[in-house]
Design goal:
There is one protein chain. This protein has about 250 residues and is an alpha/beta fold. It has one domain: Metallo-dependent phosphatases (Purple Acid Phosphatase, chain A, domain 2, 4-Layer Sandwich), CATH 3.60.21.10. It is built from six helices and eleven strands. The strands form two sheets. The chain has a six-stranded mixed β-sheet. The chain has a five-stranded mixed β-sheet with strand order 4-3-2-1-11, covered by helices on one side. Helix 2 packs parallel to helix 3. It is globular, with a radius of gyration of 17 Å. The two termini are about 15 Å apart. It binds fe (ii) ion (2 copies). One fe (ii) ion binds next to loops.
């Protein structure tokens, strides 16, 4: 599938986990993704340890991509305690890093936030008891609020949401059930019910399932690279997703 006059195409992948040995290994992959789509979307865990060195390697690997690149960070990008450095290096390289913010690509609105964990449905951790538990739950609420404010900014008829953590259990199915609460949070699903989108993309659950749906029927895709490699070994490890172009929207 190449570029299309009738549809806007996105190549989407998460959990690239660039490390100090990745230099030179991802250029071909990114070039292929850029050629197949109008934009490349990255769903967090861009780096392995969140170091400036890893972020610079990723920026160099992305240098040959001629289409816009939009990303959210993942938990690994926080490991060294300097996510702002990862963000700065990538922003300097032209990547739009979304953190409770939104952008527009060829008439399609994209809302992005990292998200957080805490569990799903009736099993969600509640803000009760020790201050540290309340703080943990507050972080999940903050990230849900970021997603909501990003979604509220979108004015386009076509909209997608980018996350690192999962908003539903459907796309973490396949992981050990004991770790579900660390893979995402239903609190991220709530803004998606108030501000429906055409699709949601996330990563983080490397052994999860490719496709699920929110309770209002919005498709959710887990695009973690290890999952794409394992579940579709015959295809390159990015997901191609397309939406019809709005009438009058120029084909760039
Ligand atoms: Fe990951
Ligand atoms: Fe992760």
């Amino acid at each position: 599938m190449g570029k299309s006059a009738t549809h806007v195409r996105f190549a989407i992948v998460g959990d690239i986990h660039v490390n100090k040995d990745s230099a030179g290994s991802l250029r071909g992959f990114f070039a292929q993704a850029g050629e197949a789509a109008d934009a490349l979307l990255l769903c967090g865990d861009l780096t392995d340890y969140g170091t400036a060195e890893e972020a610079k390697i990723l920026a160099e690997e992305l240098a040959g991509v001629s289409v816009p690149v939009v990303a959210v960070l993942g938990n690994h990008d926080f490991e060294s305690g300097t996510p702002e450095v990862v963000c700065e290096v990538l922003t300097h390289a032209g990547v739009r890093v979304l953190d409770g913010s939104a952008c527009e690509i060829e008439g399609v609105g994209i809302a992005g936030a990292k998200g957080f964990c805490g569990g799903f449905g009736r099993g969600s951790l509640g803000a009760w008891g020790e201050p540290i538990i309340k703080q943990f739950v507050q972080e999940a609420l903050n990230e849900a609020m970021k997603l909501e404010s990003a979604l509220a900014k979108l004015r386009t008829p076509r909209r997608i949401a980018l996350l690192h953590y999962a908003p539903i259990t459907g796309t973490v199915a396949g992981e050990p059930v004991e770790i579900f609460p660390f893979l995402g949070s239903s609190r991220l699903e709530e803004p998606l019910l108030r501000y429906p989108v055409d699709a949601v993309f996330h990563g983080h659950a490397h052994r999860g399932a490719l496709e699920g749906k929110t309770i209002n029927g919005v498709p959710v895709y887990n695009v973690a690279r290890p999952l794409l490699l394992r579940s579709r070994p015959e295809q390159p490890p990015f997901l191609l997703f397309e939406l019809p172009r709005e009438p009058g929207e120029p084909h760039a």
